[in-house]
Write a structure and sequence with these properties.
The complex is a heterodimer of chains A (about 15) and B (about 260).
Chain A lengths: L2 E2 L7 E2 L1
Chain B lengths: L1 E5 L2 H11 L5 E7 L2 E7 L5 E8 L6 E3 L3 E6 H8 L7 E6 L5 E7 L6 E7 L8 E2 L7 E6 H12 L4 E7 L2 E7 L4 E6 L13 E4 L3 E6 H7 L8 E6 L5 E6 L5 E6 L2 E2 L2
Antiparallel strand pairs in B: 1-5, 1-7, 2-3, 2-6, 3-4, 4-19, 7-8, 8-9, 11-15, 11-17, 12-13, 12-16, 13-14, 17-18, 18-19
The chains are: A mainly beta (about 15), B mainly beta (about 260).
Chain lengths: ~15, ~260
Amino acid sequence: GGGQGNLMSFFGMK
Amino acid sequence: MLEARLEQANLLKKVVDAIKDLVQDCNFDCNDSGVALQAMDNSHVALVSMMLKAESFSPFRCDRNIALGINLTSLMKVLRCAQNEDILTLKAEDAPDVVNLVFESSESDRLSEYDIKLMDIDQEHLGIPETEYAATITMPSAEFQRICRDLMALSESVAIEATKDGVKFSCSGDIGNGAVTLRSHTNVEKPDLNVEIALSEPVALTFSLKYLVNFCKASGLSSTVKLCLSNEVPLLVEYGLASNSYLRFYLAPKIGD
């Protein structure tokens, strides 16, 4: 299996 | 000040029970539109977004923005003191040290009151873009829970593929492979059993089952669940609540092979 993505790379900090 | 009366304490109890294993310390952001919560798990893989709209409460009063920093384990301890049918009123001053919870029995004159000490929580707030998802699947929440639990017996991750023919949940593990395919389905007698697939383009993504099984703890909040997918973006799992309130979970996909 591949790696686990991180939400921080999809959603920007407010 | 905040004063928000929920007809059923059970609603908040179910919400907190569903998210307490993902996130621990959370700000409940209160303003005149309602009570909102956004929190990520420690590994930044999953995000919980709850919105209890003012209309879900009766009455609802919140004069200014108040962030109630609450440890969910503490909140759960207090919510367990409520009977399922109790009416719950949340109260807080404008710059509060505590949040006050009052449980009233609709059947007796019992009234119980608890204060929970608040915490200062410096929470990272993510901006979640409005997304037109390529695939939106509405299905019975119990069915989604069953699929996730069943496949987790074989593997730690599930591939979700949505095409015009249906949605396929598949996994492969040490002992072998498994797959469940659902097609669009309309049950006139029991519309809660409907499976609806709205698709603008085919989608294929892989997700960790551990998180999905965790999200499914919210199944008791709604008979249906909505899965929103687009290639290469986080999955949205939404449990709709009365009065347009909701409990949403976002999950980052697995990358590469």
